[in-house]
Amino acid sequence: MKGLIGGFYHVSEWIMKFSAVNLLWLLFNLPIVLIVMNMIFVDRPRNLFILVALLGIMAPFILFPATAAMFASVRDWVLKTDTSSIFRSFWNYYKENYKRSLLGGLILTGAWIVWGVDYYYFNKLNVMLMFTFLLLGILLYVYTLNFFSLMAHYDLKLRSLLKKSFLFTFGSPILSGAVFLGSGLIIYVSINGLLFLIPFFTGSLIAFISFSAFYRVYLNLTNRS
């Protein structure tokens, strides 16, 4: 199809892809979604602590495998290799990457817990410490997204995957900046006004931007070698 009708069809096809994968991601993360919703409305610090602890326990088993499947699905779009149905692809990637994403999730969730505890206690001491841990949090956030991008693209053992994610995060400031600014803008817009993006587009858009930025850097490095 060409012309205006073809353009509308192409746009609607992409909207369907993003929304379908985002909804699947939320469906597979339903326990996590319920915990986060309760955290928003909780009014007692003790209850908030319990919810955060539950989130930390469940994240490696639920959040990480579902997010790995979402990044792998998005990779097919970027490389233009998507041929099967969206649900079938998502489910296949979920099963294929479950063990690696679970083990990686245990390590990264542990890193996030350490960062969260340190930030909670040290940001009250002085402004310099607060900004230092804030910067470390940003780097850990970018590292986590790069971890998912590399898992989607490489068939590597966990140790090599973690090492490669470190090299991409700290060896390519342009990639880290693009991932942080792109995903940060999506989160900001989603929370401050366009709430409808959260159930339909936020997660899949972040995955698409993060993997696209990674893949561009990957192609540049491949062409140089």
Describe the fold and architecture.
The chain is mostly helical and 225 residues long. 86% of the residues lie in helices and 0% in strands. The chain is built from 10 helices and no strands. It has helices spanning 3-28, 30-41, 45-58, 63-79, 86-96, 98-122, 127-153, 158-171, 173-191, 197-224. Helix 4 (63-79) packs across helix 7 (127-153), helix 4 (63-79) packs across helix 10 and helix 6 packs antiparallel against helix 7. The termini are far apart.
What's this, in brief?
By secondary structure, this protein is mainly alpha-helical.
The geometry reads as globular
Q: What percent of residues are in strands?
A: under 5%
Radius of gyration: 18 Å
H/E series? HHHHHHHHHH
What is the tally of beta strands? 0
Helical proportion? over 70%
Main features:
86% helix; mainly alpha; 225 residues; 10 helices
Q: How does the SSE layout of this entry go?
A:
Elements: H1 3-28, H2 30-41, H3 45-58, H4 63-79, H5 86-96, H6 98-122, H7 127-153, H8 158-171, H9 173-191, H10 197-224
Helix pairs in contact: 1-4, 1-10, 2-3, 4-5, 4-6, 4-7, 4-10, 6-7, 7-8, 7-10, 9-10
